[in-house]
């Protein structure tokens, strides 16, 4: 979660009608920024907010500094209400560095940055291709990419390898499974530089978000110029890749569907943003899955022989493993909405226009009343599938602005996890507990070193 990309018109205060929302205490200037810094800084934001919920309850209000005032919510029913109250044009937060870059360089971006009618028109088109109807073309593409990755997987430079896997999966979906296999055999397009720069965007964004971004931009601080360079290279590389894909066979894939329904210019910018946005979330979700595989070798065997979780439905057992990984290691531990159309009522509280709502998935996923032994990794718990458990772990969000790539992500994670478990026994080179830290998304505090033993 970042308070970055919010403009001042969205920073109005609550009216007295919402004064009953508990508020954490902070300094007159800077809000509770200094409390956060004392608790470990932005890297520990998820744990800091979790402690605030324990102190103030399932809903509280806090200013973390920079004038950005948020209402934090961990109650599952309140969270679902927030999504049900989404207006026609729901708005979420975008890191300030990204929006400032777009404004400064006149860059037109895809769905993640669109709002209003432009967003709605393009979102409706993409919904038809990625969230509705027959998704067999997506499933086939994800399976082919998963098989390709499992065959070539190496623990060396694991994060970069996973970024490349995520990008290859999207290419497979764009071209269709059959065309992707031909593309891999015959195309010499080098994905390594693009992969590295997509990762560097998020690394440089994190460093920049800890500074006054506008000031860093105005004075061309090194952190800003590094960020601009990464974005420039990644945008150019992603655009070149899309143009390259348009010159090969893509019948049966997402690209064919988009070209039939959207202007070419919109196709390019929507796909470019899919390339840039999908990399970190799926990469680190898979990384945490591999960590859990290594920490729980008995679960690897059970998944492999299909005897414990779900003997008749193999995919469900892998899905439960992924759900449990996301519950404990939510790569996006905060989901945000900005109230822009009219005041809303969440539970007994009125929340006015201009306020930010922040859903605390790290905290809701550790709710002991919903998840007994909340800190234990137990995929079996998902066989109950209670509605409240589902509400507490809305990692792809829900409603009109839910993750457009949800079905791609779910299938590629399941397929790849299955391929890896069938082919390898996964171990940690050094058996140690690894902490979660915020780095735009939740990442391991140490480099994850794995040992892969063929089965």
From TrEMBL:
Its cofactor is heme. Pfam families: p450 (PF00067). InterPro entries: CYP11_CYP27_families, Cyt_P450, Cyt_P450_E_grp-I, Cyt_P450_sf. Keywords: Heme, Iron, Metal-binding, Monooxygenase, Oxidoreductase. It comes from the Eukaryota. SUPFAM superfamilies: Cytochrome P450. Gene3D superfamilies: Cytochrome P450. Transmembrane segments: none annotated. PANTHER family: CYTOCHROME P450 (PTHR24279:SF120). Belongs to the cytochrome P450 family. This is Cytochrome P450 315a1, mitochondrial. It comes from Nicrophorus vespilloides (Boreal carrion beetle). The gene is LOC108557717.
């Amino acid at each position: 979660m970042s308070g970055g990309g919010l403009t001042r018109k969205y920073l109005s205060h609550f009216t007295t009608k919402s004064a009953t929302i508990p508020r954490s205490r902070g300094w007159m200037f800077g809000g509770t920024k200094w409390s956060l810094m004392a608790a470990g800084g932005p890297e520990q934001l998820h744990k800091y907010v979790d402690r605030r919920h324990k102190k103030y309850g399932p809903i509280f209000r806090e200013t973390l500094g920079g004038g950005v005032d948020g209402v934090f919510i961990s109650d599952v029913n309140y969270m679902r209400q927030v999504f049900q109250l989404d207006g026609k044009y729901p708005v979420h937060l975008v890191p300030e560095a990204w929006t400032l870059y777009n404004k400064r360089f006149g860059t037109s971006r895809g769905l993640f940055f669109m709002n209003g009618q432009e967003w709605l028109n393009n979102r409706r088109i993409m919904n038809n291709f990625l969230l509705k109807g027959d998704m067999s073309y997506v499933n086939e593409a994800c399976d082919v990419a998963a098989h390709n990755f499992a065959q070539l997987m190496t623990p060396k430079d694991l994060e970069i390898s996973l970024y490349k896997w995520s990008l290859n999966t999207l290419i497979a979906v764009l071209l269709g499974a059959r065309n992707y296999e031909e593309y891999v055999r015959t195309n010499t397009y080098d994905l390594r530089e693009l992969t590295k720069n997509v990762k560097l965007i998020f690394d440089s964004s994190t460093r920049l978000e800890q500074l006054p971004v506008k000031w860093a931009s105005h004075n061309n601080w090194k952190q800003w110029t590094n960020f601009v360079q990464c974005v420039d290279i990644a945008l150019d590389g992603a655009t070149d890749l899309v143009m390259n894909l348009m010159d090969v066979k893509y019948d049966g894939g997402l690209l064919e569907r988009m070209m039939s329904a959207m202007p070419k210019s919109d196709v390019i910018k929507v796909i470019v943003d899919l390339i840039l946005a999908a990399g970190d979330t799926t990469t680190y979700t898979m990384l945490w899955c591999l960590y859990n595989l290594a920490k729980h070798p008995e679960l690897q065997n059970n998944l492999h022989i299909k005897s414990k979780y779900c003997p008749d439905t193999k995919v469900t057992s892998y899905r439960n493993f992924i759900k449990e990984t996301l519950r404990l290691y939510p790569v996006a531990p905060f989901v945000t909405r900005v109230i822009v159309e009219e005041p809303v009522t969440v539970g007994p509280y009125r929340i006015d226009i201009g306020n930010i709502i922040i859903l605390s998935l790290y905290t809701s996923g550790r709710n002991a009343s919903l998840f007994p032994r909340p800190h234990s990794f137990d995929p079996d718990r998902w066989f109950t599938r209670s509605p409240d458990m589902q509400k507490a772990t809305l990692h792809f969000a829900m409603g009109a602005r839910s993750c457009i790539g949800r079905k791609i992500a779910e299938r590629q994670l399941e397929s790849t996890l299955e391929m890896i478990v069938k082919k390898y026994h996964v171990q940690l080179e050094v058996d140690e507990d690894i902490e979660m830290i915020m780095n735009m998304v939740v990442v391991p505090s140490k480099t994850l070193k794995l040992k892969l033993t063929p089965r």
